Amino acid sequence: MEYKEAEQIERIIITETEQENDIRGYKFKNCIETIITEKNEITNCIFENCKCIEAKFISTYFTNVIFNNCDFSNADFSESNFVECEFSNCKLVGTKLIDTSIYRTKMKESNFEYSNFANSNIKDTTFKENNISMASFGECKLKNTKFEECELYRTQMFRTNLKGIDVSTCNIDGIIIDKEDLKGLIVNQFQAVELSKLLGKDVIMANDVIGEDATSKAENLKEGEIMLLENVRFHREETDNDPEFAKKLASMAEIFVNDAFGTAHRAHASTTGIANYIPGVAGFLIEKELKFLGNAINNPERPFVAILGGAKVSDKIGVIDSLLDKVDTLMIGGGMAYTFFKAQGYNVGNSICELDKLDLARSLMEKAKNKGVKMLLPVDNKLGKEFKPDTESMVAKYTEIPDGWEGFDIGPETIKIYENELQSAKMEWTSWII
């Protein structure tokens, strides 16, 4: 069909209209800002290369509309309907899609980070090669909806009907989900296929962790066969290091080999608890990492700079104490920094802080001083009112964190200082444990 061109319009304001005056057959191209007030119908239109940041499309009916290479960051599509539409290569960071109805729509190669789809009805829709990290699908109805090769890192899907939803080709690390909704979610088949390719042999995929499918397949494993369990993090008992959960994991094996160096520090059921019931040993990767770290730390090139992060000082007592005997510079980041600030008498607002470890923090700072180790703490911090994508935020000096605010990350001045310090480093060692 032919479209009526509407190109390089600086500002479009479309107020509520009668049905016969609704928008049909337009191609909006290179427009800077589009604000559409409530209860409009947009049919057979194209939005191309438009920058519609913080635009309003509330209670709007979109039918057969194509959005191509547009920026809708922080826009509001609440209570709108999308029928047979397409979003391609678009940016919808922090966008509100609350209470929407999405039917037979294609979402591909777009960025939906921090977007909110809460209470929406999504049917016969495909999300393909999208970044949907930190987004929310809370209390949604998803029917015949596909997620193909998407990033779903820490995506929230609380109280959402996930029966038959396939996320097997997606990265679902840290996905936030109700345990009751796990039964219908199809995951990890992609990981089993990839593992099969790497090993050169078939990998059997269990549909659960300690349930009937996993235990039955474990009992029937033949010599040389490999089985991959479902994601253990889908069970809260995993991070709680629940003894019964660990015992059930152990019941499917005769020996436990931990080769996950990045998670070996965690006292979880699959890393620590399981070793209480069957013999546990370290794998070759952990052996390799320990040999490297041992040689590097005991005989390092100088200047030797270490970077420590994570939430708690108490998790790093031994590490910090040992490093102060070896490093030239120790840089602190993450949540633990606020315990050090508090130990110096500064206000930390609502930031994470171990009040029972203030004396420990002071003693570590004193040891660094006596050893001649340059111990760097953040000089400014990124703050928020609460831990959610659309929170009010600001940057403040470490001495000026106000009440009611929470520190989330190091600030721009700290980044510059740390970057400069790393320029002269001959060796760097990083530990960022949450």
Largest sheet: 8 strands, parallel
Shape: globular
Residue ranges: pLDDT <50 for 5 or more in a row?
A: none
Radius of gyration: 26 Å
Query: What is the straight-line distance between the termini?
Result: 55 Å
Number of helices: 9
Number of strands: 30
- As a percent range, the share of helical residues equals 10-25%
β content, as a range?
Answer: 15-25%
By secondary-structure content and strand pairing, the structural class works out as alpha/beta
Strand order of the largest sheet: 1-4-7-9-11-13-15-17
| Overall average residue pLDDT | 84
Quick synopsis:
The chain has 434 residues and is of the alpha/beta class. Helices cover 20% and strands 24% of the residues.
Structure write-up:
The chain is of the alpha/beta class and 434 residues long. It has nine helices and 30 strands. The protein is globular and about 75 Å long. The model has no long low-confidence stretch (mean pLDDT 84).
For this entry, give a set of tags:
434 residues, 20% helix, seven-stranded parallel β-sheet
